[in-house]
Amino acid sequence: MTWWEVAVIAGVVVVATALQGSIGFGLGMLAAPVIGLIDPTVLPGIVIMLAIVVTAIVALRERASLDLAGAGWALVGRVPGSVAGAALVAVLPAKGLAVLVALVVLGGVGLSLVGWKPAPTRIGLVSAGAASGILGTSTSIGGAPMALIWQRFDGPQLRGTMAAFFLVGSSLSLVALVAFGAVTEATLTLAVWLLPAVLAGYALSRYANTLLDKRRLRITALAASSLGAVMLIAAQLV
């Protein structure tokens, strides 16, 4: 990977982290397709490592608004889902994983557009947590199921609860990936280089909501994610 490629990824990570810090999810949806275009071999580990840093900071910031009970039930499903997701990474080739990332992004965008609103019951939370574990560990994009189940929450509660869930869930996913030998030295090195971009994105997120209202931020995120996913699929076909 060249320095120019690292710089492009860093720029995307700044924007994606700002999105995650503002609405509670979006780091993987925005960053993973671009990273997949440049070097799919570092997915999904690189995004999961960065997500752990972001979610730890956001969970601390929004700790007063956490729904700990809801997050706990979702984590019940996340554990087996993470193991299943790590197994997928172990058997899928890099190109296959890149296409899966793109399809998951487009699926999440589609569900957001149709406005599906599942009820946050215990069964719903466990099911969403399992889906998030499979998708989050295999593609680094596990936000869509949780955003759907918690979409009735207000801003601080949504950000805080999702951050707490993903802090634990992403840590579980990383452990599962390491156990399956899916985290390389190159992935670890890139994660270190991208830490300043994560911190810059978090700082930007504190001002993002003053520039964009929730509707505009959502539209921007969905449009950027869709474009990245389509480009990623096109790159695998040539």
From TrEMBL:
Its main location: membrane. The chain crosses the membrane at residues 6-30, 42-60, 72-92, 97-116, 128-150, 162-180, 186-205, 217-237. Keywords: Cell membrane, Membrane, Transmembrane, Transmembrane helix, Transport. Coiled coil: none annotated. It is found in: Cell membrane. It is a multi-pass membrane protein. InterPro entries: TM_pro_TauE-like (IPR002781), TSUP (IPR052017). Belongs to the 4-toluene sulfonate uptake permease (TSUP) (TC 2.A.102) family. This is Probable membrane transporter protein. It comes from Conyzicola nivalis.
